[in-house]
Amino acid sequence: xxxxxxxxxxxxxxxxxxxxxxxxxxxxxxxxxxxxxxxxxxxxxxxxxxxxxxxxxxxxxxxxxxxxxxxxxxxxxxxxxxxxxxxxxxxxxxxxxxxxxxxxxxxxxxxxxxxxxxxxxxxxxxxxxxxxxxxxxxxxxxxxxxxxxxxxxxxxxxxxxxxxxxxxxxxxxxxxxxxxxxxxxxxxxxxxxxxxxxxxxxxxxxxxxxxxxxxxxxxxxxxxxxxxxxxxxxxxxxxxxxxxxxxxxxxxxxxxxxxxxxxxxxxxxxxxxxxxxxxxxxxxxxxxxxxxxxxxxxxxxxxxxxxxxxxxxxxxxxxxxxxxxxxxxxxxxxx
Length: 335
Ligand code: UDP
Ligand code: MG
Known about the structure:
By secondary structure, the protein is of the alpha/beta class. The chain has ten helices and seven strands. The longest helix has 34 residues, at 272-305. Mean pLDDT is 82; it is low at 1-7. Bound molecules: uridine-5'-diphosphate (UDP) and magnesium ion.
């Protein structure tokens, strides 16, 4: 990785830090969030990009008020509620900083951790993600489902997501640009930020309870979120049909000699074992065929997602290759 990006040996100099926050019905939190953010960031040069995800309480006015009095506060109002990940993406698109922090508005993630993350960035880490050590003030059901989710994701998915890492993370401009070059529609940002690579480290912290209000993640949103996560990083569900098909077909094959024996010794009513075998065999064959179709759909899905093939971190003695017509995969990192 490029060691010196300005400044003395290997230490990157911060021009602008963008803090990106989605807000949905957070009227009770806005003021406290802003105060704590100001205190935590101290004299770091920063901008606060807040995305109002279609709240209809007082959140929009409060945000506009802040923007009026502090030009560092940038506000984006979405036309309706698009959901956490979409709102976050909108904020990231508008962030101008050379290092970007995503943080929830509810103060479950302490803004005081940000200077530490920036320090890690200064010393060359491109993605610093915060890992929640303990999670206070969350229901047993939430903790349990979160645990299942991370376990399932680890089994199925192609990226290595640290347990309990939320969306609270810092990204270097290059890593962010690479992530934003992934045009997929069902977005699972914390998986995508790992997918882009670069140097990644974790910082752990105890997670506080929500400052005010209730979780904005309903069960419905949580289910959609986990489905998005798993389907965008795994083909295993598509391959399930193949596995089940194999099992059925294998059982059917084992049953064939048994059916013959049963016929000879007349242990069952005539025809029953044969019928069973045939049903299993045909079922198995059908599932196998479905699995094959699934494999193709998986490939089509990969093509449609249109992710870059690779992401270049840095170049030595070689130029960015000339673009021939179409935008080239892997060339998405600005230098
Ligand atoms: N949020 C959003 N749109 C939504 C739901 C949530 O912008 O549809 C925001 C919310 O205001 C908060 C963050 O996303 O800043 C995380 O939401 P929440 O704290 O409710 O989720 P949890 O921490 O319970 O998973
Ligand atoms: Mg929260």
